[in-house]
């Protein structure tokens, strides 16, 4: 049987999560098969001789001639599956080393009672999200989508849920310069948010304390948000010279109406848990003293519900907006790439590190 569109889309996502760079030759093959599967035979003019990269891509695509779209789709899925199993089998040689290499230095992941729990684990830094952490979360989501748990839970270790993007991401500039960093960060951000948009199982946030920035915006992509009454919800983008991400430019106005979304996303109004509940961003608020007990009792009961029914219901509720969400995510990431290079943003980051500004 040929690969269905879902297998193909899943293979496209898996490529982003490969642990090892497959090399240029394989990347060209993947590119060519992707173009053939989505657009059919090569239909663009041949790039000039000196446009080396685009010419190599064009040659690879053109070499597929009139290969049918379905066959290209299947070949793409097979190629990705081969790449994944070779990276898995190389990791089986040293399971302990691989566990370390696969990441989770910044997360604690446990599976119990059909629930996979992904806990942000940098309590001393208020669970601020480093680039390593974004990558580990993507890997954890990929694994959780395939394990036998029925629901997946995000929470934070310590007194914060998360203080959002780790601002040291702005100071760790590679030799290629700030422009290159901004470009790569925009790709990372888009891929990160895409993983939430596409996540197939019910996704639950257990917001144990204050949440800032991107840890708030992606809540619009969760299926349940439980909050301690100690939690706050803060998106101070203008203060940081930045703009909304995580699809919040779309999900927040939809959830709470444009007037309230503007207060949060443009003016940086910090919401209490009760206010976030009133705006529809939070499903339910619990007293901090009984938060963990009440939430986990509830989740354990939910996790025993029939798995397929829950997953199909999620698909019905979410799938019709997926394409739109991906487009919004791409646009938000593109705009942020420019913002990160602005004086407004740089000054805000410098103020934080020189201790002139705290939220
Ligand atoms: C061109 C390159 C671009 C790179 C971009 C990468 C991809 C980004 C994609 C997404 C973008 C997202 C947007 C956001 O998330 S915006 C929100 C960013 N977050 C903040 O601005 C919060 C900053 N932190 C604070 O204001 C305060 O720390 C606090 C959260 C209010 C807590 O205050 P506190 O007094 O209770 O605790 P404090 O002593 O400050 O914190 C303890 C230590 O933790 C460090 N820390 C906390 N949060 C962060 C953070 N977000 N980034 C870096 N470090 C953080 C803090 O510095 C303390 O460290 P130390 O003990 O002094 O060493």
From TrEMBL:
InterPro entries reported in the protein's UniProt record: Acyl-CoA-binding_prot_CS (IPR022408), Acyl-CoA-binding_protein (IPR000582), Acyl-CoA-binding_sf (IPR035984), ClpP/crotonase-like_dom_sf (IPR029045), ECH/Chromodomain_protein (IPR051053), Enoyl-CoA_hydra/iso (IPR001753), Enoyl-CoA_hydra_C (IPR014748), FERM/acyl-CoA-bd_prot_sf (IPR014352)
Protein family per UniProt: In the C-terminal section; belongs to the enoyl-CoA hydratase/isomerase family.
Role, per record: Able to isomerize both 3-cis and 3-trans double bonds into the 2-trans form in a range of enoyl-CoA species. Has a preference for 3-trans substrates.
The reaction(s) this protein catalyses: (3E)-octenoyl-CoA = (2E)-octenoyl-CoA; (3Z)-octenoyl-CoA = (2E)-octenoyl-CoA; (3E)-tetradecenoyl-CoA = (2E)-tetradecenoyl-CoA; (3E)-nonenoyl-CoA = (2E)-nonenoyl-CoA
EC main group: isomerase
Recorded metabolic or biological pathway in which this protein acts: Lipid metabolism; fatty acid beta-oxidation
Entry keyword Mitochondrion: yes
EC numbers on record: 5.3.3.8
Name of the molecule in the record: Enoyl-CoA delta isomerase 2
Keywords linked to the UniProt accession: Acetylation, Isomerase, Mitochondrion, Peroxisome, Phosphoprotein, Transit peptide
Domain ACB: 4-89
Organism of origin: Zalophus californianus
């Amino acid at each position: 049987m040929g690969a269905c569109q879902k297998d193909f889309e899943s293979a496209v996502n898996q490529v982003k999560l490969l642990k090892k760079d497959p090399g240029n030759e394989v990347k060209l093959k993947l590119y060519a098969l992707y173009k053939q599967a989505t657009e059919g035979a090569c239909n663009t003019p041949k790039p000039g001789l000196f446009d080396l990269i685009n010419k190599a891509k064009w040659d690879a695509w053109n070499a597929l001639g009139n290969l049918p779209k379905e066959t290209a789709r299947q070949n793409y899925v097979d190629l990705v599956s081969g790449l994944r199993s070779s990276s898995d089998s190389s990791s089986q040689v040293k399971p302990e080393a691989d566990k370390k290499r696969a990441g989770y230095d910044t997360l604690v992941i446990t599976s119990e009672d059909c629930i996979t729990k992904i806990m942000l684990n940098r309590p001393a830094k208020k669970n601020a999200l480093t680039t390593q952490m974004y990558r580990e979360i993507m890997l954890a989501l990929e694994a959780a989508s395939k394990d036998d748990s029925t629901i997946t839970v995000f929470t934070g270790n310590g007194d914060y849920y998360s203080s959002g993007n780790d601002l040291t991401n702005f100071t760790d500039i590679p030799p290629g310069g700030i422009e290159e960093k901004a470009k790569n960060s925009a790709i990372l951000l888009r891929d990160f948010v895409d993983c939430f948009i596409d996540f197939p199982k019910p996704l639950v946030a257990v917001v144990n304390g204050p949440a800032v920035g991107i840890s708030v915006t992606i809540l619009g992509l969760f299926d349940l948000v439980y909050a301690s009454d100690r939690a706050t919800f803060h998106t101070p983008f203008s203060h940081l010279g930045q703009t909304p991400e995580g699809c919040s430019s779309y999900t927040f106005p939809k959830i709470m109406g444009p007037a309230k979304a503007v207060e949060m996303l443009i003016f940086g109004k910090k919401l209490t848990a009760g206010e976030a509940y009133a705006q529809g961003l939070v499903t339910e608020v619990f007293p901090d003293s009984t938060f963990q007990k009440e939430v986990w009792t509830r989740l354990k009961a939910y996790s025993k519900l029939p798995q397929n029914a829950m997953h199909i219901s999620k698909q019905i509720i979410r799938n019709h907006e997926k394409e739109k969400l991906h487009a919004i995510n791409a646009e938000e990431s593109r705009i942020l790439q420019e913002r990160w290079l602005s004086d407004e943003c740089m000054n805000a980051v410098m103020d934080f590190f020189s201790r002139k500004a705290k939220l």
